Amino acid sequence: MNDELNGMLTEVLTDHCPPALVEASEGGWSEDLWKVLESVGLTAVGIPEEQGGSGGDFDDAVTVVRAAARYAAPVPLTQTLLVAPVLRDLFGLPHRAGPTAVAWTPLRASAQGELWQLTGTVSDVAYAPAASSVLLLGVDDAGRVVLAEVDASLDWTVRTDLAGEPRGTAAIDVVVPAAATDLDLAAVLDRARDAEALALVWGMVGALEKIEELTVGHVTAREQFGRPIAKFQAVKQVAAQIAGAVAIARAAAMEATAARGRPDAAFAVAAARARTAGAGTDAARYAHQLHGAIGYTREYPLHHYTRRIWAWRDEGRSAVEWTELAGRRALAGGADKLWETITG
Amino acid sequence: MSADVLASAELSAEFARWLAANRAQATELSEAALRPAPATEYLAAQKALQSWLYEEGWLARGWPKEYGGTGNDVGLRAAIYDLLGAADIAVPSTVNVVEIIAPTLQHFAPGLAEQLLSPLVAGAEAWCQGFSEPEAGSDLASLRTRATRTEQGWSISGQKIWSTRAPGADRCAVLARTGSPESRHRGLSLFMVDMDTPGVECRPIDDMSFTQHFGEIFFDDVQVPDDRRIGDVDGGWAVAQYLLQWERGMFSWLRQSALLGMLRQLPPGDDAGRGAAYQDVIALRLRSLGTLRALAAGKSDGPQVSIDKLLLSRAERSVHELANRTRPVAVDDGTPGWHERRHEYLHSRSAPIYGGSAEIQRTIIANQILQLGKESR
């Protein structure tokens, strides 16, 4: 991890993303926070300077997403820094500044001279109402896949998710420039979902680190029976389970990051996503158990992190699907490679 | 002779005939009662359902005639809750409180019971209990709300928190310290306090399931007559223990019926998880059946009911995790009922916490059932 970058993030987020801002942004987002992050270049980390980004590598972008999750920052950094760039690279689209949303529902595409007509409905687009641009996928009658980046000022029907983040659904009928690829839709979605999975894994690590911090703080400060509840074996052991779950999530995320570019990269991402889902479920449960009723109130910030864990855990593909996918990917290399994939 | 906790064939048939004629209204009032809403709105929906079911006769059965019932019969009441659950009709959550406080009043203050219980059973009034305090949650015996003798009765001052259904409640059963500050559980007494008494202030607490299920109550020199005392002076701990077996026992019975209903209504998928969740609920149901039969026979099972509470926590988690896997609540999919499902999922997180946390229940089982002795300090 880049310590200098992490220190800067901690400073900016402590000042500009207090719990009150997170609570006030429930169901929406914070444009003010985005502007602050943008002014210091944090909304374009990992994107090369020659493309208009802030520079830095993939690990730096991960550092931003992880830190933002530690503050439950209500801004679309995951999509902007880690998902949109992968899709743009896949189709050769240029970087575009500003908060970005990614629409996963493929639209119907048809060529109109140099342009493409995209029609249909995109649903549950995370942070759609916050975005300046949205990435749209389209498939034509021949199965060719195209990607367009359009102005996000569409007529969004906004709903909220379990994490309290906004989601938009909109009818699309546009004629726009779009880029094509030789990959089929399943391959495109697999690559993009893997990028999203790795981003969510790091977001969950950040949220879990905060959950651990809040819980340790609570059990050492809260006194019952004349002593801090951390003095009880039963409490210590549940707290230790949280530490274990966070360590598992962090190790899985680091391995999936290290595997980028390796033949087993897709397996490592699926495994990390499945493993983090389980660790997140456990840690969230134990954290609430140790917080008691206090952690169940809106006033205490724990729920912002546990709700994000429960929502991100099931985002895109469920843990069951990721587990099956990890199995299929592990087997894809054939029997000779299996041992190496699992142990390597 | 009391009815069994499982409905007789005659009772089931009578209920089925009634249901056939009243299905639409039952469903409408039940759905309204399950809808997450601010405290007063939520309470009004509970009372509407409760008073209708009372007028239709179902929630009057099994209560003593003196409070508008058909004769005291715990087994009959439990059987009716089970019939309602099996028909996917919510038992209003105000009934949970009736089943906690009414048997306690009957046992420890029959005069007060006769005087006060009719409107509670009928759903015209809603009550709450004031046990936990900011500094006395799991360690209930350390509570500080003080009741001091006056010429007319008692003066109560202090603060209660996590009181379920307190906002909008008409009365509150308040556990207060009447002994010395060091007396712990030996110096407590229970009082029935009217919430409109001068000096009582109640505020709802916003909770993470987007409702206001509980509140905090402030008492500032609140005058309470001595005839509102439930049980002996300094004898409140015994009253609370008696009360808690109803809170844990009857509530577990009410929930197992609701959880079986949830399992029935889930979309297909995850057969293994469904089987596991079903087993957890059936384990709870069988255990709870024994507890309810003991309560109906007037036998106290004491600390045994902590096992029911642990089984309940486990069943709640299994069923709601399964529900979330078969139909994730992560994103509002625009279908009706998402807010209800989100609320149910988040609310299920509180099961191993409310009414005594799982850690406290396990400690009770270890210390009082297994006699393992207290943890050294």
Task: List descriptors.
heterodimer; A: 344 residues; alpha+beta; eight-stranded mixed beta sheet; 11 helices; B: alpha+beta; four-stranded mixed beta sheet; four-stranded antiparallel beta sheet
Description:
The complex is a heterodimer of chains A (344) and B (377). Chain A has 344 residues and is an alpha+beta fold. In chain A, 53% of the residues lie in helices and 17% in strands. In chain A, strands 1, 2, 3, 4, 5, 6, 7 and 8 form an 8-stranded mixed sheet that branches. A two-stranded antiparallel sheet of chain A has the order 9-10. In chain A, strand 9 and strand 10 (227-228) form a beta hairpin. The longest helix of chain A is centred in the middle third of the chain and has 37 residues, at 185-221. The mean pLDDT of chain A is 95. With 377 residues, chain B is an alpha+beta fold. Helix content of chain B is 49%, strand content 14%. Chain B has a 4-stranded mixed sheet with strand order 1-4-5-8. In chain B, helix 4 packs antiparallel against helix 5 (110-121), helix 4 runs antiparallel to helix 6 and helix 6 (236-265) runs parallel beside helix 8 (305-326). The mean pLDDT of chain B is 95. The interface between A and B is large, with 41 and 42 residues.
Oligomeric state, counting identical vs distinct chains: heterodimer
How many DSSP helices of chain A? 11
Which percent range fits the helix content of chain B? Answer: 40-55%
Average pLDDT, all residues of chain A: 95
Strand order of the largest sheet of chain B: 1-4-5-8
What separation lies between the terminal Cα atoms of chain A? Answer: 23 Å
User: Which percent range describes the beta-strand content of chain A?
Assistant: 15-25%
Rounded to an integer, what's the Rg of chain B over CA atoms? 20 Å
Average pLDDT score of chain B: 95
How large is the share of residues in beta strands of chain B? 5-15%
The computed structural class of chain B is alpha+beta
SSE string of chain B, helices as H and strands as E: HHHHHEEEEEEEEHHHHH
